[in-house]
Write a structure and sequence with these properties.
300 residues, mainly alpha, two-stranded antiparallel sheet, 11 helices, 2 strands, flat
């Protein structure tokens, strides 16, 4: 312990030895060392966890397989050969995509080098400006119209005429499409009324028609579509054939019936009565004949 000792008018430090330790001045004894518990800081990793085993390296093989499967979710890879075939296809697609991007980027670089103001126009559009507003900031109307004898005068005129023709064609197409839509809506309503289709039946029928038209529009002609078209286009001929077949079959059956029911007499001719002649059978309509013919086909 240190005290201040007065000596000849000045204070000097006096070192005394604690009686309980008996240590010499300046000596640090084990009893004098106070050990306080170490409190880890908030969020610090405990020593035992810091000494944990090193992290497992990533499984690149499994990661690669998962990426290929995500690119082809509907495919079932029967074996490794099938998997690597799809992996090779995916790599080919990515390589083709990269090469096309390089070509496009080169074209854009050439354009921007020839007209440095074009990127500025695109930047303004990217910030929300309209095309006209962006162009107006960097060009004047006079600059966009080549003067007489300019190198691109003929090409400018040609492109201007092509643009006007395209606008006229689009306008005519939109007008015709609106007329066709109105005509189709009217035809659909008349068809539904004439065929007594309910709303659900009409919706189901039109959905099938729409599917068939979508196939044709996409350039895909299915066998079912051809079958439906054949039946529709040949309906009248098939109906006429069935009607004629029914008539012929009916006549043949009448002849056979007459042969079987002819009475057997003594060979003398049968003299008809002078009374009222028997009432002739009522002629059948072609619908009845077709129906009876269909029943006979089912029986046979």
């Amino acid at each position: 312990m240190t005290k201040l000792k007065e000596k000849e008018g000045e204070l000097t430090p006096e070192v005394t030895t604690p009686p309980e330790t008996g240590a010499t001045p300046g000596e640090v004894t084990p009893e004098a060392v106070v050990t306080e518990p170490v409190v880890p800081e908030a969020g610090a990793t405990p020593p035992e966890e810091a000494a944990a085993a090193p992290e497992t390296p990533p499984n690149y093989s499994e990661s690669f397989r998962n990426r290929i499967k995500s690119a082809y979710p509907d495919d079932e890879f029967a074996d490794d050969e099938a998997f690597f075939a799809k992996a090779s296809e995916q790599l080919d697609n990515l390589e083709e995509y990269r090469n096309k991007n390089r070509e496009i980027n080169q074209v854009l670089r050439d354009i921007f080098d020839s007209e440095p103001v074009v990127p500025e126009v695109l930047k303004d559009m990217g910030k929300g400006a309209s095309f006209r507003a962006a162009v107006a900031r960097h060009f004047s109307v006079d600059e966009l119209t080549p003067g007489e004898g300019a190198p691109d005068e003929e090409e400018w005129k040609k492109n201007t005429e092509a643009r006007l023709a395209r606008l006229k064609e689009n306008e005519e197409y939109n007008t015709k499409k609106a007329e066709s839509t109105e005509f189709s809506a009217k035809s659909i309503k008349e068809f539904a009324d004439e065929t007594n289709l309910s709303e659900d039946q009409a919706t189901e029928f039109l959905a099938k028609v729409g599917e068939a038209l979508d196939e044709v529009y996409e350039g895909r002609i299915s066998k079912s579509f051809l079958t439906s078209m054949y039946r529709a286009l040949n309906y009248d001929n098939d109906l006429k054939t069935a009607q004629e077949t029914g008539r012929i079959t009916g006549r043949n059956e009448k002849i056979e019936t007459a042969k079987e029911t002819k009475p057997k007499g003594d060979g003398m001719p049968v003299i008809a009565s002078s009374g009222t002649p028997p009432e002739s059978a009522k002629p059948k309509g072609w619908i009845d004949e077709v129906y009876e013919q269909e029943q006979k086909r089912n029986i046979l």
